[in-house]
Structure formats: structure tokens, C-alpha cells
Amino acid sequence: xxxxxxxxxxxxxxxxxxxxxxxxxxxxxxxxxxxxxxxxxxxxxxxxxxxxxxxxxxxxxxxxxxxxxxxxxxxxxxxxxxxxxxxxxxxxxxxxxxxxxxxxxxxxxxxxxxxxxxxxxxxxxxxxxxxxxxxxxxxxxxxxxxxxxxxxxxxxxxxxxxxxxxxxxxxxxxxxxxxxxxxxxxxxxxxxxxxxxxxxxxxxxxxxxxxxxxxxxxxxxxxxxxxxxxxxxxxxxxxxxxxxxxxxxxxxxxxxxxxxxxxxxxxxxxxxxxxxxxxxxxxxxxxxxxxxxxxxx
Length: 297
What we know:
The protein has helices at residues 2-11, 24-30, 57-63, 66-92, 115-131, 148-155, 161-164, 173-184, 192-195, 204-208, 214-226, 265-269, and strands spanning 35-40, 46-50, 99-104, 136-142, 167-169.
């Protein structure tokens, strides 16, 4: 597997994928993905929260090709390896090269898990598993609806047994929250209202706490690096700086086989500089920072 991964990295120029941001048009869709890093678990591993069922898959599929989407995913994985893991290691005093994923399935429906979405998820899962096989420490699936058993029967076919063994499926409510926090520890910046809220309020608690979307943060870091600016999202060792003291927020930290075609990263990296983001363009989440509604837990 290592040989194939090295060949994939060389063929797709993955080592240089953080040198060119995605286009501004694609950024508008990628930064809508409600995924955030929420500090570090008691084992020292970074905690990645993704509201999987709230990802705007239809918009992404309508405006990005599969390769374009996968390129953005590879960039976030590479950003994680280059910035997030070193910071976690510095804090832990030991090498940290894995992440804890929390996948929130609130609002999941069969209609939202269409054949096109399944195909994209399958390719993204295979890409991560095949080329970043040891990157997952543990995964917790929360707010899983009854239909999830059907979805899981499909998804786990894409994963090897070692990965499946790392996945823990929880329900919802107070019991889920207690079990999750027992696993993660009280030191994480994950808060109950982030995973115990209505689907309409997903992302609002994160905005209140000042958390930045994972994929938008990756692109901001790339743009800052190109412009020679010190980035709030990755100037080691101060990777996770605190924001203004006037805000009650925590460390900025925004996180899954068939023979599949790899994304054309080589062609992507040869794009002209005109595709680069304007240095003045901010990367901000579109969610409102207004107070969250009553939690459902």
C-alpha cells in the first residue's frame, strides 16, 4: 500500500498541492461544508466535527467536478498533516499523526443520500483510506437516525475491516453526549449545543465560539502562505491562536474499494496564477452567529 501511495503522490504532485488555492467560485461552495476542528481529545488527538448530513451535496455536485472536489479534500488532509498534527504533537509532547472524527448525521434522509452523493462519498472515502490509511484514530457517529443502518451497510463496504473497527455508532440526546464526552474528555472545545441542536441551527454554535470551517481555513492558509503573510491558521508553533479577548471563544481549530480514478492534481497545480484567490478576500463562514435555538437533547 505504501508503494501505491507514494506512486499516487508523485503522479499527482501531491507534495505541491498546498501551493495553489482552489478558485474563488469553488471556495464559495467548499467553505459551506459544516466541518470544524474542536480542540484536542484527552489522548492528545485533534477532534474533527463534521455535520455530514448538512453538507450541501447538491450544490457541490452542481458546481464542482468530482476531481475538483477531491482536490480540495486532499488539500485539507495535507493541511492537517502539515499544520494540525505538528501542533497536536507540540502540545502532547509526543508524535500525533491521527485524528478523531465526529460525524453528526442529524437530518440524514435517504433522498439526501442519492446515487450521485453515494458515488462522491465513495471516491472520497477510498481516496482517504488508500492514501492516508493510518490517519484515523477513532470515529464517532452521532445522531444516527433509524435509516442509518441501511446507509452504513453501503458505506462500510468501501472501508477495510481495520477502519470499520475504529467506528463507534451512538444515538442522540443526553446519553450520546455523556458517552461521547467520556471518550473525548472535557478538554475539547466541542460543546453540547454543537451536536444537540436543530438542523436549522447547525453551525451557529460553532460561529458563536469563533470556530472556523475546516476547508475554508485550509484555503485561507494557502492564500496567506502564497502572499507571504503569517497565517492565523498555521504559523507553527502558534497554530491555534486565540481571537480577541473580547470574545468568549476557544482555540481556532476547525477533520474517511473499487479501482477509482485519482483526482487530476497535476493539472490542477499547473493552473495560472489568475485562479488564485485575491489576498483581500476573507474566508468566513456564512452561518449566522446569532444565539442558537433551544437544543434538542
